[in-house]
Amino acid sequence: MCAFLVSGGNWRLPTADSVPKQVEYCLRGSRRWVPRVCYKRSSLRSSASDLRQERVSGTHCGSESAPALPVSVDYRLVSETAEWKGLEAHSEEIKRLHLRELMRDAERVRSLRAEFDGIYLDYSRQRVNRQTMQLLFDLARRTRLTDKIRAMQSGAHINATEGRAVLHTALRADRRATLVVDGVDVIREVWEVLDHVRDFSERVRNGIHRGVTGKPLRNVIAVGIGGSYLGPDFVHEAFRTDPDAFEAAKGRHLHFLSNVDPVDIKRCTQDLSADETLIIVVSKSFTTAETLLNARAMREWLWSQLGRSEDVVRHHMVACSSNVKMVEKFGIDPRNTFEFWDWVGGRYSVCSAVGALPLSIQYGFASFARFLEGARSVDSNFYDVSRPLEGNLPVIMGLLGVWNLSFLGYKSRALHPYAEALLKFPAHIQQVDMESNGKHVTLRGDDVDYAVGEIDFGEPGTNGQHSFFQLLHMGQPVPCDFIGFIESQYPLCIEGEPVSNADELMANFFAQPDALAYGKTAEECRVEGRPEWLIPHLVTTGNRPSLSLLLPRLDPYTTGQLLALYEHRTAVQGFVWDINSFDQWGVELGKVLAKRVRKQLNESRYYGHRISEEFNVSTRDLMERYLRGQVGCAFNQPFDYQRDTGTGRSTLQP
Ligand SMILES: O=P(O)(O)OC[C@H]1O[C@H](O)[C@H](O)[C@@H](O)[C@@H]1O
Asked: Considering the entire predicted model, what is its pTM?
């Protein structure tokens, strides 16, 4: 049985015919999408043949036994497929070719470009030819990429280890669309929250919602970390110099408090006065230790200036979270809580209230709505899998990522926006990609025997050129993405200068990819008359891949387009690699260990307890040195402490 629940707007539905037999999704009593073919728990981590034997159908799907596997395939590891092996063999041929030769073939160059809604992608400087791309698209088909994309769009629980749908694209869907998942129209819920954001942000901007002393709230501090910070901060920086957003933000200030280092509090608050400040606590779980401590610290800061009352919290603190109960317990007015859902991953949450609230208060809702429209535009390209994948920008970029890491062996990847306003974009994409694809097992729990998950980093051009580009040119090769814009947010021409300031910037955007691709030969150095002894130091081998993205101008719309492009690139890579790009269990271990250390610090500092032998010698000695605050102390002695008879609390003595 197959049924489809999505309709309206720009959502394209999978049709019954379009879903292959092995990946049929059935609509069960719970109205939850689960695959009809699934596996017993015992089949996790078994061989391909075992898996085939242990296939069961019907009632064992979903949370009742093993997690639902979103898309069933007929191999254990993608590296076992003929398509993968074909690419491995082909990569040996490509490794013998230099980009200098590849770039000579004008027809090849012209065939390696794609365009969608103003975004021009040139990937001719990748170490690929038309055959490579053909083989990569074959691999995409073999891994059922289009079915996986459809499963994501339809709200199937593709985040199998957490039993969740992955629906961040619903956050920017047209309000006329409908998407029923688990019995709920998620798009209606999304727009209810967006309307709430619009209303609240207008009330703050118009001075209707004021502080407890009656002053308008012209400052906002958004308290959050990871996905509850990096996305909004990147968009804030991108909007800051957009002429319309700039006008709308006049007289207003937006700050982000993310680090639990108390210095971050100092940096955020030192020029602000509490009576004009609104605190937004942003935390999906509302349990993140750093965010909650910072939220309590900000509450103390408000109370220290405005008096200790619930009213102060109600006027000056609001929250974006999916844990409404905990928010209320904190003392924040439920009417000022902006909800989002478990199907929004933290690193994919910037289009939810997480980004909507701070950015709409700062720049007005209209700019944020344009940002959503830009993201929606690229979503439509990504989801339009009934068209050839050759025109699907996120798919092309994702396949190139797979090629560079898994076949050519490039472990890192760099992102260089030639736009200062995108200075925080690389950091955001670093979390999106590294937290998503930093995995070591497939969805079924089998160890991967191929490289997955790049090390992502980047800086805006031209700053990066004067920092780490030396290594990119002569040291370890790192595939680069260059992002440039035709029109500057701030056109500036200095009289007497040969080019405008933006042309100077873009001259580098055009030059760097060729410098990386072509390099410089010893012969070219000789023609320049360089001395022979110096030549080895001057030669750059070239053959270093990159791609170039050229967009009309950086504004809220194109910011949204870039966000979606990179979010989906990550998903495509995860789909092809057959890993779960939507959980992050690795982060948990550090949190658990920090809990134990926190308890020890409390017991040692305030009650003089010795550091427990449960910690290893290294950690014990480091903590001891830290707690005693002195060099050369005797290790693991009880601490001296003094009891305050008034409070009954003990304090460690230096
Ligand atoms: O929004 P929160 O629940 O406070 O989570 C903040 C961050 O916590 C962890 O570090 C997760 O790995 C991130 O994905 C998440 O964005």
From this structure: 0.89
Give the atom of ligand 1 at the shortest distance from the alpha carbon of 584. 12
The answer to whether the beta carbons of residues 410 and 475 sit under 8 Å apart is: no
- Nearest alpha carbon to residue 193 among 356, 316, 343: 356
CA of 281 to the centre of ligand 1 (A): 13
Any ligand 1 atom below 6 A from CB of 285: yes
pLDDT value at residue 38: 31
CATH level 3 topology of 78-143+387-579: Rossmann fold (3.40.50)
* Cα–ligand 1 centroid distance for 323 (angstroms): 13
For residue 417, the SS3 value is: strand
**Which two three-digit tokens encode residue 215?**
């002053």
Which class in CATH covers the domain with range 172-374?
A: alpha beta
pLDDT of residue 72: 74
The per-residue pLDDT for range 23-64, each reduced to its tens digit, is 333 322 233 333 332 323 333 333 333 333 333 222 223 334
Q: Residue 436 phi/psi, 5° resolution?
A: -80, -50
With a 6 A CB cut-off, is 352 part of the ligand 1 pocket? no
Which of the listed residues 259, 280, 584 should we mutate to test ligand 1's pocket, taking the one with most ligand atoms within 8 A of CB? 584
Stretch 234-258: mean pLDDT, rounded?
A: 97
Strands 25-27 and 33-35, by their bridges, are antiparallel
- Which residue type is seen at 446? D
